Amino acid sequence: MEQNVANTLPQESTTDSLRQWWDGPLPERLRERTVVAESQNTVLRDFMSQFDVRGANVLEVGGSMASTVAGLPDHRRWVSVDPLAQDSSEDRHEVIGKPVEKAGLERGAFDLVFSCNAFEHMTDLTESMLAIRDALAPGGYVYAHYGPIWSGPDGHHLENVSWEGRDLIFWADNPIPHWTHLMLEPEQMGEMLEEYFAPGLVQKIVHSVYHDDWINRRFFEDYLEAFREAGLTLVSLEGQHVVDYESKYPDGPYRHPAFTRLLSQDPELGLNRRFGPKYRNFRCRDMRVVLRRPKTSAAS
Q1: DSSP 206
Q2: Are the beta carbons of 92 and 75 closer than 8 angstroms?
């Protein structure tokens, strides 16, 4: 039974957010997408369609697609940095099992940076972006596709929660109505969930949503700020707002008073009252960006 805060999404657009928070020129390509990347391979193919990796040194941030990378045409070197992976080196593919800011990468060594579903997990987003900037050669590009981000409708990114043979995950078995992770305090979320779920499972869900360091809980505008602080030029940005999965809420409605109050109000008004004026875009859940390190900069 679907029981979202409202039937309509907040109407703050990606363009409006950029015009307010990005003090440089708007990117050449800027639009909202309705198509969701179905797999990491889909994202990699999109990256390959935009950039020629022949003869390039490529840095992959937050993943290790070694089996796919092996078939790439004539890349010079592919380095994957992933804190969940083990160090390894084979032919032209190297894996460094550390976060990008701790990987000890050579400055200016990479022509391209590729990243799939990693930016929303970066604990220190600013330090990570500075490390990526430093690893890029002047004039090099960053391609990143990531989400769901914290400020989106399903930004709680529920994952890694199991209970009595049941695996809860935001795209397959998700009991959390849209935006309630933003509008409810952890205690309120727990009380709401306890209407239908065992206390032990509720504790796991609340920890995953509010306390686990698996996600960084950064808002749409925080990413723009981190890109800007790193001195990177925003070439293109595409924000996706479609939730492309079936929600599996409880059989009956949540009756917690804090949640029923949310149902009775305009979500955009409530979110803006709670987080504005700094944060305004609660529509975008998934971001695809292309960034460029200027050919000349103070950090060169």
Answers
A1: H
A2: yes
Are β-strands 110-116 and 93-96 bridged in parallel, bridged antiparallel, or unpaired? unpaired
- Does any domain span residue 3? no
Q: What is the 3-state secondary structure (H, E, C) of 249-277?
A: CCCCCCCCHHHHHHHCCCHHHHHHHHHCC
Q: Helix, strand or coil for residue 125?
A: helix
Q: Residue 245 has what DSSP assignment?
A: S
3-state secondary structure of 151: coil
* CB atoms closer than 10 angstroms to residue 67: 9
Give the SS3 label for residue 239: strand
| Counted domains in the chain | 1
Beta bridge partners of 261: none
Residue-range definition of the domain harbouring residue 266: 14-292
Token pair in block for residue 18: 């950029």
Work out the number of other CB atoms within 10 angstroms of the CB of residue 77.
16
pLDDT tens, position by position, 21-57: 444 444 544 455 544 556 788 898 899 889 998 889 9
In angstroms, the Cα distances linking 49 to 53, 61, 116, 143, 286 are 10, 19, 15, 11, 20
Q: Across the chain, where does the E strand assignment appear?
A: 29-33, 57-61, 77-81, 88-90, 93-96, 110-116, 136-146, 161-163, 166-168, 233-240, 286-292
Beta carbons of 285 and 153 less than 8 angstroms apart: yes
The answer to the question of residue 249 being in a domain is yes
Q: What is the pLDDT of residues 58-94, one digit of tens each?
A: 999 998 776 676 666 677 899 999 999 888 888 788 9
Q: Is residue 4 part of a domain?
A: no
Q: In what order do the strands lie in the sheet with 286-292?
A: 29-33, 233-240, 286-292, 136-146, 110-116, 57-61, 77-81, 93-96, 88-90
Q: Look up the CATH number of the domain holding residue 53.
A: 3.40.50.150
Give a yes or no: residue 8 inside a domain: no
DSSP-assigned beta bridge partners for residue 33? 240
